[in-house]
Amino acid sequence: MGKEEWYQIKNAESVESPGLVFYVERIKANITQALSMINDPQRLRPHVKTHKSLEISKMMIVAGISKFKCATIAEAEMLALAGAVDVLLAYQPVGPNTDRFIALQQKYPATKFSCLIDDEATAEALNTLSEAYGVKSSVWIDINVGMDRTGIRPDQVVKLFTALQQLDGLGCKGLHAYDGHIHESSFDMRKQQVSIIITLLQKLQYEIAAISGQEIIVVAGGSPSYTIYNKDTDFECSPGTFALWDKGYGEAYEEQHFQCAALVLSRIVSLPGTNLICCDLGHKAVAAEKSLDRRVIFLNAPALKVVSQSEEHLVLDAGDGHPFRVGDLLYGLPYHVCPTVALYEHATCISAGLARENWEISSRKRKITI
To answer: What residues have CB less than 8 Å from 109, skipping those under 6 apart?
Structure first.
């Protein structure tokens, strides 16, 4: 018998397909690795958008992580349920989400919530609601550092900070900058681009301190730039994908020694041609925003080539004379794990090679209770 690979599940017959599986020991190792890369665990503020899981959040808290970042009200509530002390909603609340943000603070007083702001009128609306409900809402100024998705222009930051100082229902906690446009594989190229942002953010810190006497914190970056901010600044860092990792990041960022800890299990459901096989890994089972050849790779059959994908099916070219049969199991490694996880209601946890309990992907929902 050949050597068993790390991903092989001894009782795989009990795992449904398509199915999301988490490898618990690898997740623990990734959390340990992320902590080992920074000089102070208080500077680590992981983003939970990748795993969206109460159990993984608790694993991080047990490991000594107390600050978190999230993208939705549901993710923020999941973190409160996990016992997180400090939660940054990395989104500017508008419309009913402003009321939900206030409701979060009222329902979970043991968790300190904060959110992003990049618009003065929106800040005033949040201030009015905060005062009406007797809460002091913490905010971070979101800065557009080149991604052109959200955030205020850097030359407008001091003006917005000054305006926030006049709002009694709000407290400005710091600056937030996400550099998702920086994703070159070359570490030197990334460092060169990130260094420009670091200089900008440090300048803004100095300017705000000069006019207010207030030392403010900066939260910056994601996974690709974690290995720069962690050593070159005292900023809080917000990697997220590290907990599960994926094929895309594994290829791009070789200096980051995280382990892939989430796969999608699929079974062959049909043999429609002499060279073709079809498995149950459609658009609804693995992220489909990338090109066909960069959606999934099968660890136990890496030579398979994707031909087409539809809602429930993935057709692969296995070559003439292939050995595959209906019912065969394929272990798929997603190129982009974050949106893949969001497709599943639960993940089956693999520990010591065995499929054990299911963990709910609780904050894939837009609403838990609030």
So the answer is: none
Burial (Cβ within 10 Å: 0-12, 13-18, ≥19) of residue 298: buried
pLDDT, mean of residues 340-357: 98
Q: How far apart are CA 140 and CA 208, in angstroms?
A: 13
Distance CA 33, CA 51 (A): 17
Q: Which residues contact 87 (CB under 8 A, 6 or more apart)?
A: 67, 68, 69, 70, 76, 79, 80, 111, 112, 113, 114
The first and second tokens of residue 246, run together, are 């994926």
- Predicted confidence (pLDDT) per residue in 131-157, tens digit: 999 999 999 999 999 999 999 999 999
- 204 contacts 233 by C-beta, under 8 angstroms: no
Segments in 166-225 forming alpha helices (H): 187-212
Pairing of strands 314-317, 305-309: antiparallel
Within 10 angstroms of residue 289's Cβ, the number of other Cβ atoms is 10
